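Hypothesis: this fold can be encoded by more than one sequence.
Test: take the structure tokens below, design a sequence, compare later.
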């Protein structure tokens, strides 16, 4: 089993990365292979809506970092998305990535069907539910199973490392990891 984590933050080693790595450590300890890809220093261009991806199973218009990440996504059993909250929503890179992925999936139905999806959002204060909702809608619209937790999978903190003070969020992340492990093992 393999889980691909996609970090939508433009910041390396920030709060989103801390949340992702906390969960992946638990998955790895349970014998699940994990990989993290990050949009830091790898901007993703928006979809051109050319629909040339039909029967191609990847975007053919641009050969940027999207292409690499989407290939990894197709082979993973689980997809774990993480995004900081920018303007009460996901980051611009995560938005561009999900929009392009959605078009490729719409043009090639079933590419992500029955994969497991989970997400986290790191927020300074507000907008985290909007970010989680945006990522979960991507999963739902592509026939994936969403893993939940004991509360919303968000954490609060402004500067890198601040989220480590959010004890309730850390407990929520631990529950998310446990549920992700359980579902992955049940499906396989």
């Amino acid at each position: 089993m393999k889980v691909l984590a996609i970090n939508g933050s433009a910041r390396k080693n920030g709060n989103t990365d801390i949340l992702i790595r906390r969960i992946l450590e638990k998955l790895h300890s349970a014998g699940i292979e994990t990989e993290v890809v990050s949009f830091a220093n790898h901007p993703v261009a928006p979809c051109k809506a050319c629909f040339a991806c039909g029967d191609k199973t990847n975007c053919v218009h641009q050969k940027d970092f999207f292409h690499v990440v989407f290939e990894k996504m197709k082979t993973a059993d689980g997809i774990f998305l993480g995004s900081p909250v920018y303007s009460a929503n996901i980051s611009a890179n995560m938005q561009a990535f999900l929009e392009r992925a959605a078009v490729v999936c719409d043009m090639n139905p079933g590419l992500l069907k029955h994969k497991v999806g989970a997400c986290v959002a790191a927020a300074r204060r507000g907008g985290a539910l909007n970010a989680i909702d945006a990522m979960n809608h991507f999963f739902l619209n592509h026939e994936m199973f969403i893993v939940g937790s004991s509360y919303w999978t968000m954490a609060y903190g402004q500067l890198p490392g601040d989220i480590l003070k959010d004890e309730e969020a850390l407990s929520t992340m631990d529950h998310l990891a446990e549920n992700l492990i359980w579902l992955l093992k049940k499906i396989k």
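The chain has a mean pLDDT of 96. The chain is about 40% helix and 15% strand.
Hypothesis status: open.
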